[in-house]
Specification:
Helix content is 72%, strand content 3%. With 491 residues, the chain is mainly alpha-helical. β4 and β5 form a beta hairpin. α3 runs parallel beside α5, α15 runs antiparallel to α16 and α15 runs antiparallel to α19. It is globular and about 70 Å long.
Amino acid sequence: MSTQSPAPIADAKLNRKVLGITIGAALGGFLFGFDSSVINGAVDSISGVFDLSEGVTGFVVASALLGCAVGAWFAGGIANRFGRIRVMVISAILFLISAIGSGFAFAVWDLMLWRIVGGLAIGAASVIAPAYIAEVAPAKYRGRLGSLQQMAIVLGIFAALLSDQLFAEGAGGADNEFWLGIEAWRWMFLACVVPALVYGLAALKLPESPRYLVFRNRKDEAAEVLRKYSGESNVDHRIAEIERSIGHDENQSVRDLRGKRFGLMPIVWIGILLSVFQQFVGINVIFYYSTSLWQSVGFDESQAFLTSTITSITNIVFTIVAIIFVDRIGRRLLLLIGSSGMFVSLLAMAIAFSTATVDADGNAALDGAWGGIALGGANLFTAFFAATWGPVVWVLLGEMFPNKIRAVALAVAAAAQWLANWTITMTFPVFADIGLTFAYGFYAAMALLSLFFVIFKVPETKGMELEDMDGVEIHRGKFVKIEGGEEKVIS
């Protein structure tokens, strides 16, 4: 294996190549966003067609999230055994099956089944994309490249909301028939067939992760990937470091995550809590229920779709902010800014909804400037989330764990994230019945707690090689190594 440094002109090509394979892997994030949000425009139609109560409707919306948790839980072990690329291909196939099944669902249990199948795919994609991107990306650019996963997610959300709006407007309402005599809300699900096919075909062209290849003793292939895509000049040294850190236990499992405190390693608990806080601030309430939410405060269906789409565009624009700054100012500072901004904007929404008036049918309305304050608060909240907690958590989950436990630890953290997502999605209708002030007050409290969690517990990973995570411990929010009986701070 050659260790010669590539010429400067080759470096530019290598950067383009690693960007290309990162985008290919991040297509799973696009499907993740699209499939999880597409139900937004269809939820009212589903409730009417199948004559569902509010509680059952909430469960239908959240059913995919149960599949997500299961898919995330098992994705790490499958990826360690069969490779990252095969998990991507399996996810694409499950996405395809879910899109077709959901589009032609004939009963509510049937629809929930297909949504759970789609959830399995989303969960697996949510684990494999950040892990793969972290493993192929140079440390200098890993934050930016890892943030492309979140960019793909928000683009998927935007595409889902936009296609929902186009189908609903083209048919004159989501309940009405559109092409081939099929209702518009069914086409909303069927639209996912196209990105599922694109993702599957793209995954087949991606190189395997060099760390998986080393794990399988396919060192020559790993060297080629490191040289060709990651721009590694000294591949022998890098492979030796990977071998040292990765271990050779084929049966890696949750047992490998055991620690002395509360049953798990501290780094695993930090990953789990990052995931939980990311969801408990209520971001997915905006995307799963936004159309219904804005209709409840006086917008008609067309205006509510448009408002949801504007919120999604805000999400995209501010994810670009994260990509620009994550490798410049670091992960911790972005999280601290995000927690502070989300707390203020959610508090403003809670205050705005405290002024709502409710008519005899239980429909809420915001009078005067309060509607604008609520809309502004929602978009400001989305902006802070998109620029910080949205992408940064996925970057951290992809890079913060040691090589020998990364896939399994990421799977556990992602499963916790999907369970937290399910909890928030299921409880929102209950919270809304109590009052939207209570709901957004709760999310504001979670944002405030997340601020203190980052201050005291979350270490900085900016610029660290993945192999540097081997043997580290976390004390007082810092990565440390114990050398000669003394703590040495490395981040």
